[in-house]
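Kindly draft a sequence, keeping tokens residue-aligned:
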Amino acid sequence: MDQFFVWVPIVGGIVALSAGIWYYAAIGKAVHEEEQAAGKDLSYEMNPFTGSAKSKTVKKK
């Protein structure tokens, strides 16, 4: 029973660390693809939470 008090936090920590790495890799991939499509650096035009420079709202002219 004492082994669970050691292994559960270790396994949970590895899972949490893996999820964080996966999240940042996915955001980086999305940013890279949009910069390739735009042909320029979109550093100050990106939404850092979605990795997208595209707006969800429709602009009327």
The two ends are 67 Å apart (CA to CA). The chain has one helix and no strands.
